[in-house]
Amino acid sequence: MISTYCERFWMASENYDPSRQNPGPAPHLAASVKILIAGGFGVGKTTMVSAISEIAPLRTEELITEVSSGVDDLSGVEQKHTTTVALDFGRITIDRDLVLYLFGTPGQDRFWFLWDELARGALGAVVLADTRRLSNSFAAVDFFERRGLPFIVGVNCFDGAPRYTIDEVRDALDIDPRTPVLLCDARNRESTKNVLLVLLQHLIELAGREPVST
Amino acid sequence: MTRPGDQWFDDAAGPLVRPYAVTRGRTMGAGYELDILTLVMLADHAPILRRTEPEYAQIIRLCHVPQAVAEVAATLKLPLAVTKILVGDLIGEGQLIFRSPLVSETGTSDLNVLRAVLDGIRKL
Q1: What is the 8-class DSSP label of residue A140?
Q2: Alpha carbon distance B80, A61 (integer Å)
Q3: One Pfam annotation, family name (chain B) (predicted)?
Q4: Is residue A16 one of the residues assigned to a domain?
Q5: What is the pLDDT of residue B17?
Q6: Staple A153 to which of A56, A109, A181, B48, CB 3.0 to 4.6 Å?
Q7: Mean pLDDT of B76-80
Q8: What CATH number has the domain bearing residue A106?
Q9: Residue B14 pLDDT more than 50?
Q10: Is B96 within the bounds of a domain?
């Protein structure tokens, strides 16, 4: 009774939208997949996401309740225990059925557990490396190796000439010889596109040991 | 670093409304397993929204276009955990439909999905 009344009222209102009432085809929802862009702080993760995303990168925040450590003094109130950790992400609509999200992982190592949720179900990852601070990429490489999540390494060329060759970077990071390592420019759309293509080809190679008839 | 007696101003003071106030203190949702990548959109024949909190209406407005939970959170500037609860409420009431992300077991991603993504990126 009440609902009938409400419906009438709704239909009479200016906001009534007939498409909400017409039984058309079932609404279509694409499926989502994600690729992670990892690496140390300031290595160009968000830059890479924005170079290729169809939307301006979005930032979302997760609340972290931390047990305060170190120099916590007893006067108490100064220390905030809740911090936020930001995730930047972008979107690429692949087709009607598939949307790809690119997530920049938080740079701070201590937010591992967030990486965990991020890594779950990811297709793969790009580890961005800066040759001036290669050690900043160790944490990401370690994490993906331990998780068994396939990744490639993109060496972001900050000021033109890198100081190391690709082989030297590979040695320094101590990664599997089959893991692709390539030079890139995270600001450049074509270069970023190329990085993602190399990652996808690597993933297809790993996934499709047997030939597929398509 | 703040010292005793210092005052917090603007952003340093944190949000004016505690984040979980909009969920009425709930830190658990209605039981839907929502991922940051779960896509949500307005349901056909959605019932009339009877909730008065502005966040619900904002989510409904956004979801005329399919959105990931992370996108809803980013647009509304709400923490992910809070957004999941609010979106879960709306799913429970039949306002929104949702689709969980494709989750690949590590290393065994569906080849068809990988190929589709490869083609999609090539066409960019």
Answers
A1: H
A2: 6
A3: DUF742
A4: no
A5: 65
A6: A181
A7: 91
A8: 3.40.50.300
A9: yes
A10: yes
CATH number, domain with residue B56: 1.10.10
- State how far the Cα of B93 lies from the Cα of B99, in Å rounded to an integer: 16
CA distance B97 to chain A (A): 9
Which of B3, B36, B76 to mutate to probe the A interface, most A CBs <10 Å? Answer: B36
Dist CA B91 CA B103 (whole Å): 21
The residue segments making up the domain with residue A133 are: 29-66+79-207
Total tally of structural domains belonging to chain A: 1
pTM of the predicted structure, to 2 decimals: 0.80
Q: Distance (Å) from the C-alpha of residue B103 to the closest C-alpha of chain A?
A: 4
Which residue type sits at A79?
A: Q
The answer to whether A39 and A128 are in contact (CB under 8 A) is yes
Question: What single DSSP character describes residue A131?
Answer: G
Give A-chain residues touching B4 at CB under 8 angstroms: 75, 77-78
Q: Do A204 and B111 touch (CB under 8 A)?
A: yes
Kindly state whether residue A72 falls inside one of the protein's structural domains.
no
Could you tell me if residue A85 is inside a domain?
Answer: yes
Helix (H, G, I), strand (E, B) or coil at A87: strand
With respect to residue B112, please indicate whether it lies within any of the assigned structural domains: no
What is the mean pLDDT of each successive set of 10 residues along chain A, which is 214 residues long?
A: 41 42 61 93 91 94 63 48 80 95 83 81 94 88 93 86 80 93 94 98 84 45
Segments forming the whole domain that contains residue B73: 17-103
Tokens of A39: 């690496």
Chain B partners within 8 Å of A6 (Cβ): 48
Say how many domains are in chain B. 1
Q: Read off the pLDDT of each residue in B41-67 and give the average, rounded to a whole number.
A: 93
**DSSP class per residue in chain B:** ---TT----GGGG--SS-GGGGGTT--S-SS----TT-EEEEPTTPPPP----HHHHHHHHHTTS-EEHHHHHHHHT--HHHHHHHHHHHHHTTSEEEEPPP-PPTT---HHHHHHHHHHHHT-
